[in-house]
């Protein structure tokens, strides 16, 4: 016991020498951040706490350690395990152990910043009740990974970590898979754990719990048709193709927003019968049962009802409601040809 104590004392001394050495050799800004994915081995420690780093090798024989590629020429830094007795900013980064010219393994020492985040950078969204959903991480962190399930929140070895699948402006995007049945009453919450490392080797870990139904946000629906019925327009809307089927079970409700032709006033309704004297409309949807988040609006569509040709001949399918009739389309084609002829002549 006494022996161990004195060893601890010696390490403390070692540590202060390191700080001194580092300040001399590697400032300013020489702590090159070199991670582009999550490191296999890392140790997270709180500031001023002790951390022990281990070289992944059987024997203690002639091991030398490097810190951020700088040799630690210290008598204490030659065993299989290395103790940093007071972790601080200047001491976090990559530690590698060497024998001769061969690197045996490497481990990152990271500074714990748990609890420093008030606004969670993690947001998740599901387009449907299918088995996958996506999460966005929006913060400055350099590498991030997510894990789904209890095992990840308690940091079990069996946690299956997921890498981001898309680099995102100012963050990362992930796709996660769950095994909940879309038809059953949802009684278990999803648990998503995130781990992130910043370029100063600070480490953040946070866990969020939610029901799948709480993160549902459908994609935009499709405006299929507009049909004049008396003084109204009957708008036919189809759920997005990514939405769960059968639609009779996974009921969506729609909202239509439209612009009056005469005064440009904007109105919205949940009815699919709207006034026909309008110039354009757009639609959005949400899960009618759980009153989910609304989808994004569809793009505005011009409405051509009545005699006025409000729909231009180009982009008729995308921007017109109803789509032009075959005769109208033929007319457009002819017009196009004529214009072409006029131009070439
Ligand atoms: C250490 O050197 C290797 C090889 O030159 C390099 O890939 C790595 O980024 C360096 N690590 C640090 C922390 O600078
Ligand atoms: C779920 O998977 C489908 C099919 O692979 C894909 O099109 C969709 O974008 C995924 N959804 C999310 C939210 O990642
Ligand atoms: C979680 O960990 C336990 C114990 O390590 C294991 O038995 C179980 O299969 C793991 N669950 C998942 C979903 O990986
Ligand atoms: C509106 O259109 C839908 C689908 O085309 C149709 O089933 C419905 O009867 C129409 N409603 C009216 C009032 O015409």
TrEMBL record:
It is found in: Secreted. GO terms for cellular component: extracellular space. InterPro entries: FN3_sf, Ig-like_dom_sf, Ig-like_fold, IL-12, IL-12_beta, IL-12_beta_cen-dom. Residues 122-197 form the Interleukin-12 beta central domain. The keyword Disulfide bond applies. The keyword Repeat does not apply. Its main location: secreted. Coiled coil: none annotated. Keywords: Cytokine, Disulfide bond, Glycoprotein, Immunoglobulin domain, Secreted, Signal. GO terms for molecular function: cytokine activity; cytokine receptor activity. Residues 1-32 form the signal peptide. Belongs to the IL-12B family. Heterodimer with IL12A; disulfide-linked. The heterodimer is known as interleukin IL-12. This is Interleukin-12 subunit beta.
